[in-house]
Amino acid sequence: MTKSFLCATTAALTILAALPGGPASATSASPEWSQAIPAGPVANTKITEAYATQVARDAYFWAWPLVNVYNRRLAYEKVSEIVLSGPVPAAPLNHLGMLTDYIVPEERIVACPNQDVVYGVGSLALDLSPVVIQVPDFGDRFWVYQIVDLRTDSFADLGKMYGSTPGFYLLVGPNWKGEAPKGITRVFRASTNTGYVIPRVFQDDSPEDNKVVRGLTQQVMMYPLSEYDGKMKSRDWSKLPKTASIGGGDEEVKWVVPEKFFDALPLALADAPPLPGEEARYAEIQAVLAAAQKDPKVKAAIAKAAIDADGEIVKPLFEFRNWGLQLPSNWSTQVNGADFGTDYFTRTAVGKSNIFVNKPTETKYFYQDLDGTGQRLNGANQYTVTFAKDQTPPVRGFWSLTLYNEHHFFNPNDIKRYSVGTKTKSLKYNPDGSLTIYVQADPPPEAQRGNWLPAPKGADFSLYVRGYWPKVEITDGSWTPPPAVRSDDTATIGKVKQ
């Protein structure tokens, strides 16, 4: 009997409420532990509420992405078969489901989706089993499989830019000691048992290309090693059972609930052993969690600390203009997506605003909340974004300019256009070879409508450039996007208002 993803998530959140608040029973030390400084907090030491608050605020920030991904695992844990949950697939652990076309505006599972690719999604639980993932023959088409661990760091290079060949690939956890069976092309080992898989397969905006992609993606599958038989499996993703959607509001599903954070944290820490140098950080928060089990005042202090940290430190990072490497014309970017290591700030900033980005060698991201004069982008105004001749994003794959509403999702519009770029057949270049995109709520004159990117009426929005398989001009920082120019502000560009 099919269980809806909505019910699954409700059950997962119920589980979170009942989890023990104490530290994980066993946290593996990093290999450098024996050479590290002496052991941290002494057990049973009385601590102050102020100290507990300080440690809790810090832990809430750096562990926010880990708890986010672990809570997704808890949701998928209750899914019994692959279904289409509202607009997105939902699959049991160690399986994935694929869409058959672009993702739609109603999606609320992951902020900042794109309409350049056909997506798949699946949650990894490598402590239960190694996982086989299939790669069909995509020919010359761009594709990349994003495969990340609990920290949202990539642990598998699998895509067109890597020269990956069709076949079977094995994903294993940190403690797996088996042998890969015959026919496995390569083994990728994760540093954590929990992770996330998001295949992306390019598709242009024509019905003909969608038909081709539907055929190719039938062999994009993932399953436990016990189901591997050396034969390529396939599935018609258009025939998935349909269930209720998990998300119905305007914002992304709230995967991290501050009030329950320290109930879930021990599970996340047990799944992700400390990186070299993190041992003291782990020991510190675990000592505070142990103290909270014994002292109601300490427990109340860390619960309040989580709520405060969420509002004061994490929430502001949802806005792109508040973080990242600052670029000309008020654009920003990051250079270590899916390869964060111990860059806790950028990991959490990306996780809050647009989680599950690819590595920079796979995709380069540019973020924009402001126009060329430093004013907030808003649908009450009209803008143009003009790429000079031969200055569209230099890529080997494809590029796009996407518009997101104030919640970082697509804003529904009559022409169902949420991005423009390589896929867009209607784009027309100017006589001088430049390309102008018209960003506004109302339709422009008929001659410009093929280049129109609809904006929400009277509401804030953001722009977002993707460069898939970027060329060196992007990766070395010499290319940056042009400004968003208000139609009546052409003469004021460069005079940024502080």
CATH architecture of the largest domain: Sandwich
Widest β-sheet, arrangement of strands: 12-13-14-20-16-17
pLDDT averaged residue by residue? 92
Estimated helix fraction: 10-25%
What CATH first level of the largest domain would be assigned? Mainly Beta
Any chance you could write out the topology, listing elements then pairs?
Blueprint: H1 5-18, H2 49-76, E1 83-85, E2 88-90, E3 96-98, E4 117-125, E5 131-135, E6 143-149, E7 167-172, E8 184-189, E9 194-202, H3 207-217, E10 222-224, E11 242-243, H4 261-271, H5 279-294, H6 296-314, E12 325-326, E13 332-333, H7 344-354, E14 363-368, E15 383-387, E16 395-405, E17 419-421, E18 435-440, E19 452-454, E20 461-470, H8 472-475, E21 484-486
Parallel strand pairs: 1-11, 7-8, 18-19
Antiparallel strand pairs: 1-2, 3-4, 4-9, 5-7, 5-10, 6-9, 12-13, 13-14, 14-20, 15-18, 15-21, 16-17, 16-20
Helix pairs in contact: 1-2, 2-4, 2-5, 2-6, 2-7, 5-6
Q: Could you characterize the architecture of this molecule?
A:
- The chain has 498 residues and is of the alpha+beta class.
- It folds into 3 domains: 5-76 and 254-312, no CATH class; 83-238, Domain of unknown function DUF1254 (Immunoglobulin-like), CATH 2.60.40; 320-492, Jelly Rolls (Sandwich).
- The protein contains 8 helices and 21 strands.
- It has helices spanning 5-18, 49-76, 207-217, 261-271, 279-294, 296-314, 344-354, 472-475; strands spanning 83-85, 88-90, 96-98, 117-125, 131-135, 143-149, 167-172, 184-189, 194-202, 222-224, 242-243, 325-326, 332-333, 363-368, 383-387, 395-405, 419-421, 435-440, 452-454, 461-470, 484-486.
- It has a 6-stranded antiparallel sheet with strand order 12-13-14-20-16-17. The chain has a 4-stranded antiparallel sheet with strand order 3-4-9-6, covered by helices on one side.
- Strand 12 and strand 13 form a beta hairpin.
- Helix 2 (49-76) packs across helix 6.
- The radius of gyration is 23 Å and the shape is globular.
- 47% of the residues are buried.
